[in-house]
Amino acid sequence: MSKHPHLANPNIGLGCMNLSHAYGSPVAEEQAIKALHQAFEMGYRHFDTATLYGGGNNELLVGKALKDRRDEFFLASKCGMAMVDGKKEINGRPENIRKQCEDSLKRLQTDHIDLYYLHRLDFNVPIEESAGALGDLVKEGKIGAVGLSEVSAETLTRAHNEFPITAIQSEYSLWTRNPEIAVLEACRKLGVTFVAFSPLARGFLTGTLKDVADLEAKDIRNNMPRFNAEHYPNNLALLNDYFALAKDIGCTPSQLALAWLTAKDKNIVPIPGTRSVNHMRDNFESAQLKLDAKQVSLLDEMINQNNVHGTRYTAAQQAEIDTEEFA
């Protein structure tokens, strides 16, 4: 981790997406800016956004809230996936990456982004072309480092051979173990930081979502098999022992999930997202919690890919990602 001190200090970031995108109606701008200010005050120094989120509105929000503190935090954003004419489009062509970067810089009100990810692999464009385009942006000083999101170990290695990759961001939590197939090992081998999004399993591991009928119509979880009416009750049953362990340790369920991640590998940086300032604080304080090998092993057995009900994505969603799947 010493190679990437900004990512390591502190060892947790804030995923900003939830304020504008995916989980129901966006938060009112004034309230969202206040939340970002409070996150900064409590110690967050790694803020993660993307071109896609809120059709650019999330970057506008982060820029507006934090532009006066720009030299004091690590800024990450993403390109290659955006809303175009009301539809999501994956486009990793070099000219598109460059244009999206220029637009991101304007929205974020900055002259550089510390870490810029290719949000998804464009299966129509060789990864070497996309990585090379991002490398050119590093050479020009527009971005500080190159990242990739939801790619396989093979794609990571090919990209890294074209231009050094600093971080890979993928979903990783107790109930989504795909990085354990090959990507975590590839990260260790190449010296790449692993950034874990949805480390609280999209709210599942917090215990706050008791009934999926409570979700807003626009919430993306409505289209995720694990959250459907058939599977979710079975998944909730997995939490009984989990909550008991959190109580025994003396931490919140969210803190237990985040501490498990950082115990798995010192090279992992979780970026939980939330709309609640109290949850931001709760998550941030998880950095103080250190689990022992027995506790990690207990958690490994408690919730994993073999006992979770339902797939992570629908077939259509799955077609957009390059990440390895369990047999």
UniProtKB/TrEMBL annotation:
It comes from the Bacteria. Coiled coil: none annotated. One of its GO terms (cellular component) is cytoplasm. Transmembrane segments: none annotated. Residues 11-303 form the NADP-dependent oxidoreductase domain. InterPro entries: AKR, Aldo-Keto_reductase, NAD(P)_OxRdtase_dom_sf, NADP_OxRdtase_dom. One of its GO terms (molecular function) is oxidoreductase activity. Pfam families: Aldo_ket_red. Keywords: Oxidoreductase. This is Predicted oxidoreductase. It comes from Marinomonas polaris DSM 16579.
